[in-house]
Amino acid sequence: MNTSSIVGRLTLMFAVATAVASTLAGVALFAFQSVELRHHQADELRARLEIIAPLVQRNSQPARWSFLTEKLESFTPQNDSLRYIVQAPDPRYRFGRDWPADARIARNADGSQCVKFAGRTFLAVKKHIPANGQRPDVNLIIASDLAPVRATSLALGLAVLTVSLTAIIAVSLLGRAIARKGLAPLEKLSWHASGLNPNDPGMRLPDDALPAELRTMTAAFNGALERLQHAYERLAAFNADVAHELRTPLGNLIGQTQVVLSRPRAADEFQEVLASNLEELERLRAIINDMLFLARADQGAVAENLAPTSLAALTHKTAEFLDILFEDADVTLEVRGDGHAPAEQALLGRAITNLLDNAIRHGAGPGKVEVSIEDHGSQVCLGVRNRGGPIAEPHLARLFDRFYRPDPSRSSSEDSHGLGLAVVKAVALMHGGSVFARCEGEEIVVGFYVAKAQTKTQPLLTAAE
Question: What is the pTM of this model?
Answer without folding.
Answer: 0.49
